[in-house]
């Protein structure tokens, strides 16, 4: 797939585009500011989330890269107290108090028998990160909540499939992304600050 794109067999780009890198101070970029300031938020104000915010977050998901551009994700938007308390009961209590959440599922049919064991979760993680950054940029916080097999019981997993009429033979559970206006923003956690310690320059 990548070879076809790189060597032009399936390249839809027939126009002349200026691909020169724009010179700018990376430290001052709006993107780096959002990346540095984003926090995982678990306590929110009791404020509804506007539909335009939801649409913008989902748009950010659609621009996420995925293996072979499979775009395997779908999301349910959870906005009723009953739905949110449902996840508060089967996962973590605080989820029952959030204003809104996305439930992400991943198509099993997008992957072969080898890829299915790991690639769906790479694709979902990238998409969720895009959504979280877009939400933060709009003034909303979020936190990625893993719904993997080690995180919830099989019986609770089946409850989710049944509640949302998801066919288990077609879909994997990805994650929950609760979001809303932060009630408080935690201090930044510790980071490895010496970048050169993280880079192997030998290659």
What do these coordinates show?
Helix content is 32%, strand content 14%. Strands 1, 2, 3, 4 and 5 form a 5-stranded antiparallel β-sheet that branches. The longest helix is centred in the middle third of the chain and has 19 residues, at 119-137. The protein is globular and about 50 Å long. The chain is built from 6 helices and 5 strands. The two termini are 27 Å apart. By secondary structure, it is of the alpha+beta class.
Provide a quick synopsis of the model.
The chain is built from six helices and five strands. The protein is an alpha+beta fold and 203 residues long.
Shape: globular
Strand content: 5-15%
Average pLDDT over all residues: 89
Distance between the termini: 27 Å
What class do helices, strands and sheet pairing give?
alpha+beta
Q: Count of DSSP E strands?
A: 5
Strand count, sense and barrel status of the largest sheet are: 5 strands, antiparallel
- By DSSP (H or I, 4+ residues per run), the number of helices equals 6
Order of helices and strands: HHHEHEHEEHE
Question: Rg to the nearest angstrom?
Answer: 19 Å
Helical percentage: 25-40%
Model regions low in confidence, pLDDT < 50 over at least 5 residues: none
Helices and strands in order, then pairings?
Blueprint: H1 2-6, H2 30-37, H3 51-62, E1 73-78, H4 81-90, E2 100-107, H5 119-137, E3 141-142, E4 145-146, H6 154-163, E5 171-180
Antiparallel strand pairs: 1-2, 2-5, 3-5, 4-5
Helix pairs in contact: 3-5
């Amino acid at each position: 797939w990548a070879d076809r794109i790189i060597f032009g067999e399936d390249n839809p780009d027939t126009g002349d585009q200026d691909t020169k890198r724009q010179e700018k101070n990376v430290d001052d970029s709006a993107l780096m500011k959002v990346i540095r300031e984003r926090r995982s938020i678990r306590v929110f104000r009791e404020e509804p989330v506007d539909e335009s915010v939801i649409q913008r977050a989902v748009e950010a998901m659609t621009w996420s890269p995925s293996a072979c551009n499979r775009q395997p994700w779908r999301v349910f938007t959870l906005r009723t107290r009953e739905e949110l308390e449902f996840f508060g009961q089967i996962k973590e209590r605080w989820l029952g108090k959030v204003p809104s959440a996305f439930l992400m599922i991943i198509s099993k049919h997008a992957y072969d028998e080898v890829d299915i064991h790991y690639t769906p979760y790479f694709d979902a993680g990238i998409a969720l990160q895009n959504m979280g950054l877009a939400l933060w940029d709009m003034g909303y916080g979020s936190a990625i909540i893993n719904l993997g097999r080690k995180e919830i019981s099989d019986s609770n997993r089946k409850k989710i499939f049944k509640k949302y009429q998801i066919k288990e033979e077609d879909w994997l559970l990805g994650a929950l992304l609760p979001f809303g206006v932060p009630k408080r923003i935690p201090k930044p956690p510790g980071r490895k600050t010496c970048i050169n310690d993280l880079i192997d320059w030998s290659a």
